[in-house]
Design goal:
Shape: globular
Low-confidence stretches: none
Number of strands: 0
Largest sheet: none
Order of helices and strands: HHHHHHHHH
Distance between the termini: 50 Å
Oligomer: single chain
Strand content: under 5%
Radius of gyration: 17 Å
Number of helices: 9
């Protein structure tokens, strides 16, 4: 599988995580339990794969989605993705947690795709991050944050939605250019969710 197709496959998993905040409004406990189960199952499957024992479907998906740097290693991306979502869910109120998760799903997910497809100008000292990827990250986080606040009736009034969206998108763009590798899956939802909570509830 070529690099672009691999990245599209990988980031489609990121984008699917955008469904989780809505699902948690309907069945929070069940979704959390399901995520913990998926995390444990994935870790077991990866340890088996590393020891030469294939787990039907899971090992194939992992191999397909793995980056070159992950070859012959435990693939941490899905682990940090789930941990970041769970951390934001446990640490912050639902709306700030959703903002952090949307930033991870759309900001980080689309930035990588945009960088691979259109990124010609690289940002120095960022381990290959591109201007196109960073601008896409900013736009995706700004729009998702704005919409999350606009459609949240308890948050819609008495706050400057544009200002908060701009602040969170700027912070997200700065985090995204850092060479954090898979740790950005934890840092983005936790930090941006915390920043959203600070802005929304410390007024």
């Amino acid at each position: 599988m070529n690099n672009i197709a691999k990245e599209i496959f990988r980031k489609s998993i990121h984008l699917c995580s955008a469904l989780l905040p809505f699902m948690m409004t309907k069945a929070r406990l069940q979704v959390v339990v399901f995520l913990i189960f998926i995390l444990a199952f994935y870790c077991a499957a990866e340890f088996l794969r590393m020891s030469g024992k294939e787990v039907f479907l899971v090992s194939m998906i992992t191999r397909t989605a793995a980056r070159k740097r992950d070859e012959n290693r435990f693939v941490l991306g899905p682990v940090t993705l789930v941990l970041g979502i769970l951390a934001a869910t446990f640490l912050w109120y639902p709306v700030p947690a959703a903002i952090g998760i949307y930033a991870l799903a759309f900001g980080d997910g689309l930035a990588s795709l945009s960088g691979k497809l259109f990124g010609k100008v690289k940002i120095p000292l960022t381990d290959g991050k591109t201007v196109a990827g960073s601008l896409t990250c900013f736009a995706a986080i700004f729009i998702s944050t704005y919409l999350a606040l606009y459609f949240s009736t308890e948050m819609r009034y008495g706050i400057n939605i544009s200002y908060i969206s701009l602040l969170i998108a700027s912070a997200g763009m700065l985090i995204e250019v850092l060479p954090l590798k898979d740790l950005d899956n934890i840092v983005i939802p936790v930090v941006l969710g915390g920043l959203a909570q600070l802005q929304l509830f410390a007024m």
